[in-house]
Amino acid sequence: MKFPVLAITLDLDDTLWPFAPIGARIDQVLFDWMREHSPATAAMYPVAAMRELRERSFRDNPHLHFDLSALRRLTIQEALENSGASLDLLEPAYEVFYAARNQVECYPDALDALARIAARVPVAALSNGNADLERIGLAHHFSFQLGAREHGAAKPEASIFHAACDRLGVAPAQVLHVGDHVEMDVAGAMAAGLRGCWINREAATWNHPQLQPDLQFDTLTGLADWLDANLDAADADASRST
């Protein structure tokens, strides 16, 4: 399928890098830090218990689902309070978490494909998560990063997609959103008037009853190849018409 793409919005977690190993490392790093700085908290909240507390905080605070940093701070604060620890440890503990959260290992195809894509069209990072591309060292590939916390609403809300399009200066119909999640990324983007590209690394079955993605690839390399072919063909058509 060929259609005009003047800019791309790109999801981060599970699109550029897998999140599961990051999540596991975060849990262990935070526990190890608590064991050194607040043994009572570590004793009350080993890894599994802290994970359960975090999941309960998420369930109990739906008004904060767009702000994962605030939810993480709430979890750490509750753990410190329940274990009788000083709240002076809250920000140092959060910084330990956040440093570990930004230690990512990209999928093998991702960095080369991202560089190829960014060389062809502007790319904006659009994420519900709280990764920091400056810390990670990938910000130079992106026009900007727009997170749910900064915007005040999370994907699949149309407003976050439209805000990204506005900052790019490109109409939604000419922006391709790329991500791994059927609802939050592809269906959300298409409902907002963007094109949708599903990065389906796990060979999952598309399960949305009313929509089909405009594009589907199992790697970002597939998207980079399509973009090269699509834009080269558009350039050739433009040359023949002049």
TrEMBL record:
Under the heading NCBIfam families, the entry gives: HAD-SF-IA-v1, HAD-SF-IA-v3
Cell inner membrane among keywords:
no
Q: Taxonomically, which superkingdom?
A: Bacteria
Per the UniProt entry, what species is this protein from, by scientific name?
A: Stenotrophomonas indicatrix
| Segments traversing the membrane | none
Q: Which InterPro entries match?
A: HAD-like_sf, HAD-SF_hydro_IA, HAD_sf, S-2-haloacid_dehalogenase
Leader sequence range is none
Q: What is this protein called?
A: HAD-IA family hydrolase
Keywords, ordered alphabetically: Hydrolase
User: Which Gene Ontology molecular function entries are recorded, alphabetically?
Assistant: hydrolase activity
Q: Name one Pfam family in it.
A: Hydrolase
